[in-house]
Every structure is written in structure tokens, then in C-alpha cells.
Prior knowledge:
By secondary structure, the protein is of the alpha/beta class. It contains five helices and eleven strands, in the order E-H-E-E-H-E-H-E-E-E-E-H-E-E-E-H.
Amino acid sequence: MTARIGVVTFPGSLDDRDTQRAIRVAGAEPVALWHKDKDLKQVDAVVLCGGFSYGDYLRAGAIARFSPVMEPLLEQARAGLPVLGICNGFQILTEAHLLPGTMLRNDHLHFICRDQKLRVENAQTAWTTDYSAGQEIHIPLKNNDGQYVADERTLDELEAEGRVAFRYLGFNPNGSQRDIAGVTNAAGNVVGLMPHPEHAVEPLIGTGRTDGLPFFTSILKKLVNA
């Protein structure tokens, strides 16, 4: 039996189907989770997908963080359940304090959509083992509130502990501090990033490359070999 990876849909999510397809392409079984679910249906990992949950009212991710599905997700993530937050999912993870820092409006105050070059900084998380540290990849990016910020002490800790997972290369698209595109928790089971790996798993879509597929093959191998 293959691994079962849940994909949570909130009101305003728009990349849940793409994420389910990416999971399927990698060889795992996607499991649809609804924001009102009070259990995670015994999945082996969870992805919080991109979109504009609850219309980004208050702050991006601020309302979704209190959805019923988040209660078991928070409990299980703290116990080791692998969780990936993509774009709005990353915002939700910071609002839920599973990841440090917060997301602000892009520094240029405009929505941005482009293919983005990244450098893999940490290839030892549950979601990144099929990459190599220092590897340069291209992943589609689309956001309005993508500026990652944190206080200097937190940023220094992230750097010192190797918890910066991805960094923007060539162009910082949103003003994120220290060019940070994604971070991980200390245990390496929770990862968040603003770019969209689910849009780069097949040559015919996204960047025309498959640079996002290793997110999903990494977690599949971890779960199958567990």
C-alpha cells in the first residue's frame, strides 16, 4: 500500500487539485481533507495548498489557522507528522506558529507571477531529501503577500540551525528578508515555502521542468521506508 497524503481545502483554496495531481504523479495517494474535518483520516502527511483562504481577510492565513482541521493537524505536526505549506499554506503555518516569522504584503505592493530561481539550502528535511544542498531549481511563484519577515534574532537562529530551506536567487520577488523563500521547523517535518512546486511536476506545465517533483518523491520515500 502506498503512502496517503492529505490535501486540505479551505474556502478560497485554488491549488488543491494541482497538489493532488502532483502527489499522484509522484506515486502516492492524495486524500482530500476539508477545512471543517475534525480528523485527518489517518493520512501519513499533509499539504496545505496555495490560494486565498477566507479571502485573505485580516491577514493571509489568519482565519484559516482557526479552522477545525487545524486542531488535529497542529497536534500531529508537533508529534512528527510531515506537513508542507505552499504559499497560502506557508502563511497558515506561520499564523499557527508551526513555523517562525510572518508574511507581509510584497514590498512593491503588487501581485507577482513568474518562474523563480531558487537555491536549495537544506536537503535533509522530510520534503527535500531528493534535492542536493546548493542545487538550483526553477519553481513557479505567484503571490501578493509573500514578503517573509522575522526579527533579527529569529533570522540568525534560522541561519545558524540550517533552517532556511530555500533562498531566492537572481531576483528577490517580494522583499523577503535575507532572500528567504522557505523555512523548516527544527525537527524537519514541517516545511513552508512561497513558490509552488505542484506546478512544476510535468514538462508540459509550469516552468516546463520537473523541479518541483522532488518535494513529493522525497516525502513518499520517507514514508515508504519508515
